[in-house]
Specification:
Blueprint (H helix, E strand, L loop, with lengths): L6 E4 L5 H12 L3 E6 L6 H14 L4 E5 L5 H15 L4 E4 L14 H29 L2 E6 L3 H4 L5 H21 L4 E8 L5 H4 L3 H10 L8 H12 L10 E4 L6
Helix pairs in contact: 1-9, 3-4, 4-6
The chain binds NADP nicotinamide-adenine-dinucleotide phosphate.
NADP nicotinamide-adenine-dinucleotide phosphate binds next to α1, β2 and α7.
Length: 251
């Protein structure tokens, strides 16, 4: 139980990658705050299901609602976790959306929504979770970027820019807080089976598959393993890095 006595906060954890990360951190002994946002009906039920799944494997979890685009909501989410467990050791900035379109057709709303959900959220959550980590002189900040943020992607100028922002943000935070024994790293997944990739057409999926050395899309558990490693003491000398997890993509 290498994360025993630790407290983790995972954003966007009611499904997809965030759910798998929450379950994995819990399986290693961490108590986990499962963040969700109730924009679409049913998300509360999804977060409750994750909390129950964690309890089912003998762990402890708390569902915390917050729209991570908004400072006041993030502040009260962090306060709620501190109130419940007295600390935050591991922050996983996972919440994210896509609103793809070719640049000439990309609306200002689509640009702003993606930047706010993917990048502003990382700034807000990290800023508010940092204080308890500094007090504890131990912390792990792990942000979910994307290969799009490293390589760019046609039709995803907003998404790629947000994820490139997450990468630069991570490297800067790593420099700021390293002396406090806090690491900040990003993971850069390729194509992972979640609702985000479910919507791709069969033709697009086939083209992508032909570029992946391992000839399959990744599973959420693949990413959760990497996040858990970065959260552990085994990764205590890794900071400011972006670790690709993409099955070997050659674009
Ligand atoms: P997903 O299944 O669509 O899940 C995204 C999660 O983020 C959902 O729980 C969603 O909650 C939450 N979220 C969205 N807006 C939010 C907000 N304003 N406040 C709080 N939570 C919010 O997607 P996923 O594939 O698991 O994506 C997880 C992360 O991995 C994202 O950052 C994504 O960019 C990144 N990523 C995914 C892939 C991939 O291939 N799937 C590849 C590279 C990177 P709702 O249920 O309310 O929507």
């Amino acid at each position: 139980m290498e994360l025993e006595n630790k407290v983790s906060l995972v954003t966007g954890a009611s499904r997809g990658m965030g759910r798998a990360i929450a379950l994995k951190l819990s399986s290693l002994g961490s108590r986990v705050a499962v963040n969700y946002v109730n924009i679409e009906e049913g998300n509360e039920a999804d977060a409750d299901e994750v909390v129950e799944a964690i309890a089912g494997q003998g762990g402890e979890a708390l569902a915390v609602e917050a729209d991570v685009r908004h400072g006041a909501a993030v502040k009260s989410m962090v306060e709620r976790v501190i109130e419940k467990w007295g600390r935050i050791d591991i922050l996983v900035n996972n919440a994210g959306i896509t609103r793809d379109n070719l640049l000439l057709r990309m609306s200002e709303d689509a640009w702003d929504d993606v930047i706010e959900t993917n990048l502003r959220s990382a700034y807000l959550c990290t800023r508010f979770a940092l204080r308890p980590m500094i007090k504890q002189r131990w912390g792990r900040i792990i942000s979910v970027a994307s290969i799009a943020g490293v390589m760019g992607n046609a039709g995803q100028a907003n998404y790629a820019a947000s994820k490139a922002g997450v990468i630069a943000f991570t490297k800067s935070v790593a420099r700021e807080v390293g002396s406090r024994n806090i690491t900040a790293n990003a993971v850069a997944p390729g194509f992972i089976n979640t609702r985000m990739t479910e919507i791709l057409s069969d033709e697009v999926k086939k083209t992508i598959l032909s570029m992946i050395s391992l000839s399959r899309f990744g599973e959420t558990e693949d990413v959760a393993e990497l996040v858990a490693f970065l959260a552990s003491d085994r990764a205590s000398y890794i900071t400011g890095q972006v670790i690709p997890i993409d099955g070997g993509i050659a674009m």
